[in-house]
Design brief:
Layout (H helix, E strand, L loop, with lengths): L25 H7 L2 E4 L5 E2 L12 E4 L6 E2 L12 E4 L5 E2 L12 E4 L6 E2 L12 E4 L5 E2 L12 E4 L6 E2 L12 E3 L6 E2 L12 E3 L16 E2 L12 E3 L6 E2 L12 E3 L6 E2 L12 E4 L5 E2 L12 E4 L5 E2 L12 E3 L6 E2 L12 E3 L6 E2 L12 E3 L6 E2 L12 E4 L5 E2 L12 E4 L2 H4 L2 H6 L10 H8 L15 E5 L2 H9 L2 H13 L3 E3 L5 E10 L14 E3 L5 H20 L3 E3 L1 H7 L9 E3 L2 H11 L2 H9 L2
Parallel strand pairs: 1-3, 2-4, 4-6, 5-7, 6-8, 8-10, 9-11, 10-12, 12-14, 13-15, 14-16, 16-18, 17-19, 18-20, 20-22, 21-23, 22-24, 24-26, 25-27, 26-28, 27-29, 28-30, 30-32, 31-33, 33-34
Antiparallel strand pairs: 34-36, 35-36, 36-37, 38-39
Helix pairs in contact: 6-7, 7-10
């Protein structure tokens, strides 16, 4: 103690030499300490030097040679109200002033300070403002975590590159933040729970000397989670990664501009952003994480651009205002429940590149009236279109050979299914040998494998299916296309006259099969082994119709084919200079009829001949 304070047991003056820091002896001395003056000769305040001095209300740093305030030096000095760090200090250790719950004013001098350690001012609940000097290169994890009265943070432009994890976590009074231009990374939870943060600038508001402004590249996981007052944010162009839950539960966030350099949007990045109405995903983004925009209940418009490859699980789940979406070329997979519970979604356009629809991809999209499934789609997951009650018709591409359990269950208005996989769903034997084939026209085994073998696994369970339409293999359409126009029109007229065939606008022939029986829960006990639907060609009516068309096409092919007989042997004798190609003649129609009769086609084509 100095000469002026010897009469007081509560005041201690800290003077130091090389030997150490005498501040009194034992725990009793610590508890009685109320004021400390740090001599100019002190170079280092040791670890935990004043930890637990609950009565210490004042610390005076004399300007001098002090370089370091080590870890936990003033930890839990609950009575300390203000502190001014001298310009000679280069490092504030981890938890240096942690738990100083009455610390109102903190002044960090411009000068030599480079490191503010982890938790340096953690839980200093009374601190109202702080200015981070330009010399600081590291702002440690949790450095101001829990400073619930901190209303103002001023970053001076300088060399700071990383704002550590939870640096300003739950600084609930903080209203405005401007990130300096040299910062490249915002750590996980950096501003988590700053519920009054309404103004956020992630790049300098004023143009810096460096072209392009800020250098921010990474926004960490939960960086702005639950910043409930935040209304708009602009992601700078150099940011490549937006971490998981980065803006989760920012319920007032109405405007988001994503930079053109962004590549990854993390899981649940904008989960629960209730005010968000529109978003454009730049073409640089290759992946939308799981739940990226989940429960954005007022999101009405989403612009997805080429470059996107993966839409993660539940990416747009419960976006109840979303009405239309176009999936860009390049996307190969829609994750499980990607658009589930999008109650207003009426139209979806899928590109040719999509090969898989995940489980529940459009689960309970009750307004979905139209979806285009293109060739290339291979797999439709379990309950992918469960309870899509507005869907009336669906066309399955030939590439889709497996439907997940309950893929279209409870689509209450789905009465028609068109299957373009006729090559595998119709027996080739029938197409080759006609109605006499013992196999019949339907390949029941392949149909069961696609739809499910039992009521438990049936893809269209509880759908009021009345008709299943299967495309006739493309070779038949190609044969029709090669016929002269008059003959082709004749075949098309015959198809239109037949009750069990249809001709589409694209010229495809559909074979129609009625759903003759469907089992329900009340009718069966063993749901694992009872077939939920029975598709049968009753009395071979569809087979007979298809057979008629096959006969008619064959008749026209034979009738109109230029059956040529090479007369080269005797014609060449008449004119040896004549080319062989000029030595062919067409056989007259009466001769064609004789040839057909001789070759055995007459019986097969008799119905077609009679109909001409």
């Amino acid at each position: 103690m100095d000469d002026n304070s010897r009469g007081s047991k509560r005041q201690r003056v800290l003077q130091t030499g090389a030997a150490g820091v005498p501040y009194g002896r034992g725990k009793v001395a610590k508890t009685k300490l109320t004021s400390v003056r740090i001599d100019p000769q002190v170079k280092d305040i040791p670890r935990e030097a004043f930890k637990g001095c609950v009565g210490l209300a004042e610390v005076q740093f004399e300007e001098g040679t002090l370089r370091s305030i080590r870890d936990s030096a003033f930890y839990d000095c609950k009575a300390l109200e203000q502190v001014t760090i001298p310009p000679s200090v280069t490092r504030l250790g981890n938890h240096a002033f942690r738990g100083c719950i009455k610390l109102v004013a903190v002044r960090l001098h411009e000068g030599a300070l480079k490191v503010i350690g982890d938790g340096a001012f953690h839980d200093c609940k009374a601190v109202r403002s702080v200015a981070i000097p330009s010399s600081v290169t590291k702002l440690g994890s949790g450095s101001f975590d829990g400073c619930t009265s901190l209303a103002s943070v001023q970053f001076e432009e300088g060399t700071l590159k990383v704002i550590g994890e939870s640096a300003f976590r739950e600084c609930t009074a903080l209203k405005r933040v401007a990130i300096p231009s040299n910062v490249t990374e915002l750590g996980n939870c950096a501003f988590y729970g700053c519920i009054n943060l309404a103004e956020l600038h992630l790049s300098p508001r004023r143009r810096t000397r460096r072209k392009g402004g800020g250098r921010l590249q990474v926004i960490g996981d939960s960086a702005f989670h639950s910043c409930g007052a935040l209304q708009s944010v602009i992601i700078p162009p150099l940011v490549t990664r937006l971490g998981h839950q980065a803006f989760r539960n920012c319920k007032r966030l109405a405007e988001v501009q994503l930079g053109k350099g962004l590549q990854f949007i993390g899981d649940f990045a904008f989960y629960g952003c209730n005010a968000l109405e529109q978003v454009t995903i730049p073409s640089s983004v290759t992946k939308l994480g799981s739940g990226a925009f989940r429960s954005c209940i007022n999101l009405t418009e989403v612009q997805l651009n080429e470059g996107l490859q993966t839409i993660g699980e539940s990416a747009f789940r419960k976006c109840r205002a979303l009405q239309q979406v176009t999936i860009p070329p390049g996307v190969t997979k829609l994750g499980d429940e990607a658009f589930s519970h999008c109650n207003m979604l009426a139209e979806v356009q899928l590109p040719l590149t999509v090969t898989k629809l995940g489980d529940g991809a459009f689960f309970k999209c009750i307004k979905l009236a139209e979806v285009q499934l293109h060739e290339g789609l291979q797999s439709i997951g379990r309950m992918a279109f469960y309870d899509c009650t507005t869907l009336r018709s669906v066309t399955m591409p030939s590439s889709a050979t497996k439907l997940g359990i309950g893929a279209f269950t409870r689509c209450a208005n789905l009465t028609e299914v068109i299957l373009l996989g006729g090559d595998i769903l119709l027996n080739q034997g029938f197409l080759d040998r006609g109605i006499s084939s013992e196999e019949g026209v339907l390949n029941h085994q392949r149909l069961s494998e696609m739809f499910g073998n039992s009521m438990h696994s049936f893809a269209f369970f509880e759908c009021p299916l009345t008709t299943i339409k299967i495309s006739v293999p493309g070779t038949l359409t190609e044969r029709m296309g090669r016929l002269p126009q008059e003959c082709r029109l004749s075949v098309e007229r015959r198809i239109r006259d037949l009750h069990h065939l249809e001709l589409t606008e694209e010229g495809n022939v559909l074979a129609c099969f009625p759903v003759v029986s469907r089992a329900t829960d009340a009718e069966v006990v063993d749901v694992e082994n009872v077939r939920a639907v029975d598709v049968q060609d009753t009395n071979n009516q569809t087979a007979e119709s298809l057979h008629q068309v096959l006969r008619l096409i064959s008749f026209h092919e034979l009738k109109e084919s230029s059956i040529l007989i090479e007369l080269a042997m005797w014609k060449s004798r008449l004119n040896e200079d004549r080319a062989r190609a000029d030595c062919r003649v067409s056989v007259p129609d009466p001769a064609k009829g004789l040839i057909m009769e001789y070759c055995g086609f007459t019986v097969f084509l008799e119905p077609a001949i009679e109909g001409t």
